[in-house]
Amino acid sequence: MKKLIILISCSFLSICYVQACPFCGCGGGNLYMGLLPDFKHQFIGVRYHYAQYHTQLISDPTQFSTNYYNTIEIWGGLRLGEKFQLLAFIPYYQNKQIDDDGTTKPAGLGDITVVGQYQVFHETARTESRKLVDQQLWVGGGIKVPTGIFNVDVNDSSTTVADINAQLGTGSIDFLLNALYSLRVGNIGINVSANYKINTVNNDKYKYGNKFAGNLIAYYHIAMGKNAVSPNIGLGYENVAGNTLQSKMVQYTGSNITTAVAGVEFNFNKIGIGVNGQLPVAQNFAEGQTKLKFKGMMHVTFAL
User: Fold this and answer.
1) Angle CA(295)–CA(10)–CA(68) in degrees, nearest 5?
2) How far, in Å, CA of 96 to CA of 15, rounded?
3) Are 92 and 70 in contact (CB under 8 A)?
4) How far is CA 162 from CA 40, 98, 143, 166, 252, in A?
5) CA dist., res. 7 & res. 194, Å (int)
6) Low-confidence residues of the chain, pLDDT below 70?
7) Are 44 and 304 in contact (CB under 8 A)?
8) In this predicted model, what pLDDT tens digit does every residue of 11-63 receive, in sequence order?
9) Phi and psi for 53 in degrees, rounded to 5?
10) Which of 25, 106, 119, 230 has the highest CB neighbour number within 10 Å of its CB?
11) Burial code of 195-216, b = ≥16 C-beta within 10 A, e = fewer?
12) Is 194 helix (H, G, I), strand (E, B) or coil?
């Protein structure tokens, strides 16, 4: 069982999506932006993130683990004048792990993230056929505070990578950089987003690997009076550096994955509803012994 504990799949961040993974070194408190609601000022809502991973040892197929990650997240945005926006994310995790030793269900508050964004430009124009052209660029940064539990002895020889990554928080103050560009011509639009998470060393001298995440999403906007529907498709990419303990690299951490994304957004006056699913196109976790099966997200958001 020791080998499987080391080769256990993820614990969601996520921000990823939000998840922690003993191979990828994701760490708690990741951030997923996706398509932001089409509200002009402040908003608040609830998002639900889901992910499923499966691990099976090549050397011993009787050792396995299937992990289900469920995150309920309160999120909101506040416009400060014409150029600034403040976003906040408060996650609660309720996960489930089924392996050859039984079932565990870790649950609790995760790490809270606050992000500030500045609108570099917002330009509108008309094409020769009178289609509206709207483009804008936002850049910003944020901080993740250790409100989630990190309660494990990293110096105990019996502690595994899985024990560390099963924690609901990283135990560290971490920083984020992000950028979001959107372009819409008539009813067709694209969103390109990127964020980079810089993790620091916690009090136990453990550091989760830094993470880059990017998304390219195309959508079609269908207006129906004050309501609108926007089906969308795209690609997501994540690359995570390895974890370190006392500045030494931790084995089986670090990863990269590319996913195909499809979803739909509904806007009913002051209410936004959205759902999407993600399937792996290419992934690299623990030499192929851990596989992402599916990720998804749903939200209900209200303009204030």
Assistant:
1) 55
2) 18
3) no
4) 42, 14, 25, 6, 10
5) 29
6) 1-40, 157-166
7) yes
8) 323 333 333 333 333 344 456 666 666 666 799 999 999 999 888 877 777 87
9) -125, 150
10) 25
11) bbbebeebebebbbbbbebebe
12) strand
- Please check whether residue 205 is in contact with residue 154, taking contact to mean a CB–CB distance below 8 angstroms: yes
Strands (E), the chain: 43-56, 64-80, 84-94, 96-99, 102-104, 107-109, 112-126, 132-145, 174-185, 188-198, 206-207, 211-220, 222-224, 227-240, 244-245, 248-249, 255-268, 271-284, 290-303
CATH code reported for the domain at 2-303: 2.40.128
pLDDT attached to residue 159: 62
Name residue 171's amino acid.
Answer: G
Q: pTM of the predicted model, to two decimals?
A: 0.84
Find, among 48, 169, 168, 159, the residue nearest to 107 by Cα.
168
What pLDDT is recorded for position 17? Answer: 30
Polymer length in residues for the chain:
304
The pLDDT value recorded for residue 132 is 93
d(Cα 233, Cα 236) in Å, to the nearest integer?
A: 10
Cα–Cα distance, 157 to 206 (Å, whole number): 15
Domain ranges of the chain: 2-303
Rounded to an integer, what distance in angstroms lies between the CA atom of residue 13 and that of residue 30?
5
Measuring CA to CA, which residue among 15, 38, 57 is closest to residue 199?
15
Please, are residues 226 and 245 in contact by the beta-carbon 8 Å criterion?
A: no
Instruction: Round to the nearest angstrom and report the end-to-end CA distance of the chain.
Output: 51
